[in-house]
Design a protein that fits this description.
Length: 200
């Protein structure tokens, strides 16, 4: 039995979807950013980085979305290709989502992680629409029109989770037809719809 610590609408949506898709037993523990739960000692004892998601397992805590997603996929024997090249392409997308796509988004509201001046924050916020659109253009070019690799995998789940933020970031996903199709395919999945309802 796993416990997922998640905040609504965050990148924790990805781990939540993976758990719903696989049917592994888990409990959900909501963290409220509005109440600053992520910086409270109780939560820092679970994840000293003060971020979500965190997945508590019998062996210990796992943080970082790519690691959590791959752990869930391996525990369930689902959502990860068997072929070495396809596995590498899956990890390539996970890594891009975590290190670039997500970070572009974080520049919109979390500029204080990288700079102190208000003017610097404003500059980062203004730039995030363009960097998110640039990432979409890159991914659009990579996609073939279906899933990230031949079959549905954790790469699709991570990609979808970040694409949920595009509208709020000022990017119209309809300008990227393959990405838009990918997004609709994800929304049509019952597990994804259940998680979306839970996150509101
Ligand atoms: N690299 C981490 C990033 C996790 C992360 O930054 N999560 C955000 C929510 S999307 C968070 O917890 N932010 C809380 C804060 O900055 O106070 C991952 O991919 O899991």
């Amino acid at each position: 039995m796993f416990t997922l610590f998640a905040a609504k609408g965050t990148v924790a949506v990805a781990a939540h979807i993976a758990l719903e898709e696989t049917g592994l037993p888990y409990t959900l523990n909501w963290i409220s950013f509005a109440d600053g739960d992520q910086r409270k000692p109780e939560y820092l004892a679970i994840n000293p980085k003060g971020r979500v998601p965190a997945l508590v397992t019998d062996e210990g805590v796992i943080t970082e979305t790519p690691a959590i997603l791959e752990f869930i996929a391996e525990a369930a024997g689902q959502l990860m290709p068997k072929d070495p090249f396809a596995r590498a392409k899956t990890r390539e997308m996970l890594s891009y989502c975590a290190s670039t796509f997500h970070v572009n988004h974080a520049h919109k509201l979390r500029g204080s992680r990288w700079a102190d001046l208000e003017a610097s924050h404003a500059d980062m916020t203004a730039k995030s629409t363009q960097t998110m659109a640039d990432s979409c253009a890159y991914i659009e070019d990579q996609l073939t029109g279906g899933w990230v690799t031949e079959a549905y995998s954790i790469a699709d789940i991570h990609l979808y989770t970040i694409c949920r933020w595009l509208k709020g970031d000022g990017v119209d996903i309809a300008e990227f037809p393959k990405l838009n199709f990918h997004f609709s395919q994800m929304q049509a999945r019952p597990a994804v719809a259940r998680v979306s309802d839970a996150h509101g």
